[in-house]
Amino acid sequence: MKRGFYDVTGEILEEALRSPNVAPTRIMARTSATYPMLKPIVAAGLLEFQKVSKRRNRLRMTEKGRLFLQHYKVLKQLFPCPL
């Protein structure tokens, strides 16, 4: 079953919340997402890059991202996806 944009966004946000000190590459690998999928999420203000050192970045969830994740979880409960 193909995942939609909102499903991918929800999974990335859940992973960013679960492990906040993990590199963006690890989050992409754990969610089977690609960097082009990440660009609109950052552009929408749900995530932001936080500079840790000269060459290292981390993804930090914004307040808007937390609100999106809350609504996403409610929608998943209201409309469970049949397997």
Distance between the termini: 9 Å
CATH topology: Arc Repressor Mutant, subunit A
CATH class: Mainly Alpha
Number of strands: 2
Summed up, the domain count is: 1
Tertiary shape: globular
Q: Which segments are poorly predicted (pLDDT under 50) over 5 or more consecutive residues? A: none
Structural class designation: alpha+beta
Strand order of the largest sheet: 1-2
- CATH level-four homologous superfamily name: Winged helix-like DNA-binding domain superfamily/Winged helix DNA-binding domain
Q: Could you describe the largest sheet, including whether it forms a barrel?
A: 2 strands, antiparallel
Features:
83 residues; alpha+beta; Arc Repressor Mutant, subunit A; two-stranded antiparallel sheet; 4 helices; 2 strands; globular
Structure, described:
The protein has about 80 residues and is α+β, with helices and mostly antiparallel strands. It has helices at about 5-20, 25-30, 35-45, 65-80, and strands at about 45-50, 55-60. The chain has a two-stranded antiparallel ribbon with strand order 1-2. Helix 1 crosses helix 2 and helix 1 crosses helix 4. The longest helix is centred in the C-terminal third of the chain and has 16 residues, at about 65-80. The N and C termini lie close together (about 10 Å). The model has no long low-confidence stretch (mean pLDDT about 90).
